[in-house]
Amino acid sequence: MLWVALLAIVVFALASWLEASEYLLALSRPLEFAQIDEFPLMLLVLSTGLAWFARRRWLEARQELHARIAGERELEASREQLRQLTRQGLALQESERRALARELHDELGQYLNAIKIDAVAIRATAPGHREPTQQAAASIISLADHAYAAVRNIVGRLRPVALDELGLSVALEHLRATWQQRLPKLEIELRVAMLDTLEPVLDEPTALMLYRVTQEALNNVVRHSGAQRVTICIRQIDGAIELVIADDGCGFDAFSKNAGLGLLGMRERAEAAGGKMTIVSAVGKGCTLIVRLPCPAGVETGVRP
């Protein structure tokens, strides 16, 4: 506003020095019939009206801006509440999975072991070692072994034992080895060397999120992509932790609104941990999934492979 006042003073001084008003009056006197000399009054009224209209629009714009800011704050508060609810839901889900895995392992596993022990005893003490009895006992032993293996597999999917006892890097390596054994034609590369220094400061929800996202991503690769190679990489870059899972499969339209529940669940897990998930894919060009979240406190920032 200062420059406007200075400009007005300069114009006034210049007009006074040139006697602009008298000059304009003399110039417009022959045109008195057209009332040219009334233009200044008209322009004054017009400028006053425009100034009033501009002030009203400015006030309306300020009110709209304040309303938008308030709306954005309410939206951010709603998003934060949604993230908290998602975190609580995921924590409850993992707690139920842990309890169910413990019950399966402790109760059903023990019963299966007892059935196997009894079948072994029957086979050993059958009168005269009769062949039908021994065959039945051997069948029970075999079925008990298969059932126990199935229970162990379910327990491992419900709650990865390696994650609780040995850490994220070992759990991911076990997950990779499991899929590699099932699908020897699928090349799975895992690069998580930096976890040796990062893992001690990772909290349990973050480590579990990284494991679950990797687990679901591998499921999607096996079920839908038809890939020949998958690369899993966890790295620290620009003060953040990045999980990158890339495959050379058939890909899909990343902008499609028909995203599966698996992708939605992974995105919710990433956002609940304070991170963000990005998918880069196109039909026939493979898929790259990137989860990025802030480094926990106490971690030296920088770029590490």
Strand element count: 5
Helix content: 55-70%
Distance between the termini: 54 Å
Would you identify the CATH H-level superfamily of the domain at 167-305?
A: Histidine kinase-like ATPase, C-terminal domain
Mind telling me which CATH architecture of the domain at 167-305 this is?
2-Layer Sandwich
Q: Give the overall form.
A: rod-shaped
Describe this protein's structure.
- The structure is a single chain.
- By secondary structure, this protein is of the alpha+beta class.
- The chain has a domain at 167-305: Heat Shock Protein 90 (2-Layer Sandwich).
- It is built from nine helices and five strands.
- Strands 1-2-3-5-4 form a five-stranded mixed sheet.
- Strand 2 and strand 3 (240-247) form a beta hairpin.
- Helix 3 crosses helix 9.
- It starts with a helix and ends in an 11-residue tail after the last strand.
Annotate the secondary structure layout.
Layout: H1 2-18, H2 20-28, H3 39-125, H4 131-158, H5 161-165, H6 168-182, E1 187-191, H7 195-198, H8 204-225, E2 229-237, E3 240-247, H9 261-272, E4 276-281, E5 287-294
Parallel strand pairs: 1-2
Antiparallel strand pairs: 2-3, 3-5, 4-5
Helix pairs in contact: 3-4, 3-9, 6-8, 8-9
